[in-house]
Amino acid sequence: MATVIPLKGILYNPEKITDGAAVTTPPYDVISPEEQAVFYERHPNNVIRLILGRTKPTDTAQDNPHIRSAGHYRQWMSESILKRDEQPALYLKAITYAHENRVITRYGLVALVGLEPFAKRIILPHEKTFSKVRSERLELMKATHCNYCPIFSLYPDDGGVLNTLGRAVDQSAPVVEFMDDQDHRHRLWRILDPAIHRRVAEAMQDKRLFIADGHHRYETALNFQKHLQETDPAFDDRHPANYVLMYLCSMSDPGLIILPAHRLLKAVSGDDMRQAIKVSRTYFEVAEYPYTPDDRQQVEQTFLSALNDGANRQCIGIYANLSPVFYLLTLKADVMDQLFKNELNASLRLLDVTVLTRLVFMKVLGFDQARLDNEQLIGYASTAAKALQSIDTGAYDAAFLLNPTRIEQVQEVARKGLIMPRKSTYFYPKVKSGLVMNTLVE
């Protein structure tokens, strides 16, 4: 079902770039403005200039971050900062990191995957996307004709695809190896053997792929393919834009971790939040955790522990600006069935993110779809510490803390052809941008 093939990957030239940590970044959509500035200063060839260029007040249709990205890309290719492999390859990626007092290594295959519309049920999404982000990413792809960042997808590895690749690189040195800012060890191997390419392609033919991270990038690839079909008379089935760069990870890999995607809201007043808490008591049991400056840390830990203890009971934590109280909302029995049984599939009704989006944001706070689609008014954090800090600093007005979505829930929703609310999952660690790139021009 899934078409997986090797590619002539574009990598940083090790003769000119000796430290991968200096030029690679996380995906564009998890980079804050402060981190963007750090990456810009780190190295003149950092991939940030390609994936998330700075805007300028003087930007025009002829000179903007997308046009400048294309210019950097062409220049770095001409100067051999970036270099395209001469032979098609599959790339085995390993990341080793510490999590909850244990050291874990996660493996993934970087390859090209044939684009398929979601309706064919071969490549399955699980989240909604932002319309403005899709259009912005499409303009970048039109300017650059390149995949800078692989899409992070999952598949059932019954055939031992990654074991096959692991044996192929056993005892060989990686072509890329470095430690990043988080002390994560990254390694990348290039696999050139056509026999292994065929074995992997055959093993993947009966697989469905589940998009874990990169829904905007995949939908952008589909939109770019459609754009070329409509505008390029030479476009045919052999065009490179019929494929997209992917990182494929086994669903059963012990290094596959999902962190929560806490919501951060702007333009929510103290009165809004007080009224929301009042109305919420109709649907939730509400526990309050007031604190003083002296006992803030202790109360915060008690609050977070209670949230974690409610992982199987649809619990939502709330913390608002200038309010010395943490709130823990625990859904009352049968509320979601009573309200949404005729609107939402059972697999969606009791997801924490659905409870938050449909019940808290839409019914209690009165948000409409336009408000939910405005990425300028909503942010995300993968740790409670970052979420709470964003309120204390005034960067956002209110934080809504969630327990992480489970991998089994992601699989069930995707298999049924259902869609979770935006940013329902935060797969960790993220796949680095800049390790392997792919041109959409032959």
Characterization of this structure:
The chain has two domains: 4-257 and 429-439, no CATH class; 262-403, no CATH class. It has helices at 33-42, 48-51, 65-78, 131-144, 161-169, 194-204, 215-231, 270-280, 296-309, 335-340, 346-349, 352-364, 369-372, 384-392, 407-415, and strands at residues 4-5, 10-12, 82-84, 90-99, 102-114, 123-124, 146-147, 151-155, 176-179, 185-191, 209-213, 243-250, 257-259, 262-265, 284-290, 315-320, 325-331, 378-381, 398-401, 426-428, 438-439. It is of the alpha+beta class and 442 residues long. Strand 4 and strand 5 form a beta hairpin. The strands form five sheets. Strands 1, 4, 5, 6, 8, 9, 10, 11 and 12 form a nine-stranded mixed β-sheet that branches. Strands 15-17-16-19-14-18 form a six-stranded antiparallel β-sheet, with helices on both faces. Helix content is 34%, strand content 24%. It is globular.
